[in-house]
What does this fold into?
Amino acid sequence: MTYTAENQGANFWLVTEIDEEGNPVKTHNVFCAETANTAEDAIALLTAEPAGDPE
Amino acid sequence: MAKLTGTNPDQVPTNADLGDMAYQSKDNASISKIDVPNEGDLTLNPSGGRVNIGDPDGNNDYTLNLVNRNTSTHLLARFRNVSTATEFLVRSDGGAIIRAHAGSGDKLSLGSNSSDHILIETNGEVQVTSGLLELNGNDIGGTQVTIADDAVASITPPRTGGFMIVTTQGDSVYPNIAGSGMLYYDVGLSLDMRRLDVFGTYTFGSSDLSVSTSDLTGTTGTDTHVTFSAQSGVIKIENRIGSSSSFQVTFL
It folds into this structure.
């Protein structure tokens, strides 16, 4: 799976999952921090391992 | 002397050369096969009328009438793009009535240009990629957002007022109660955002879910909390959990 990110203004990015055949599979709404607001940052936020349960 | 009759460009064909075509009227010609070369165009009824294929009666009101009289197949029509191996099939069996086939699997899409707005997968998954559901005039909706730590998302609800149910990290292996809960929102002229209580005692949401009607910047709300704020026409969500998180929001 690969990803593309398209900025929608300010810190809002649409990150699209692309399957092995090049077809878009799913689109995600991602909001970055102002200090890390690039396409790579948006993809990294979406694909990051989830934080462990604090409880 | 050159032969005057024949099928060469400089000859006149005899009726025998033309076969049955020599005896037919242009108003009702019967043709077994038409072969239009690659550079040719075939235009049917440019000024109107109907095209019937497979319908001997032809007494219908359809502009294009396709009838499959082969009882061994349910297939009716196919539109295929060779370069992308994408097909749109129309079938007449009792199961799939309309089926669109793409390289990665079957799906039916309603959209504009290359964008899918409503997508139906063969596994039963229905995606409304944007927009909302209207149930007899009542708009309901939902969205999922991923928000960096100390960042703010702005989302537009389907109505100016209603209830929203939020789950944090609901799509991961670590769903999180932090920031999860049920809220009442008003993003109209009298901004309001409330975390709901049940029977006035039990809070329908985590203790680190905060509400506000002030604008949020990323570090406005309490640290370790998720703050929801009603703003004009939009709802802002500030994630200060300590890590990026996804939030599944359902509007009722």
Notes: The mean pLDDT of chain B is 84. The domain at 138-251 of chain B is CATH 2.60.40 (Immunoglobulin-like). The helical segments of chain B are 15-18.
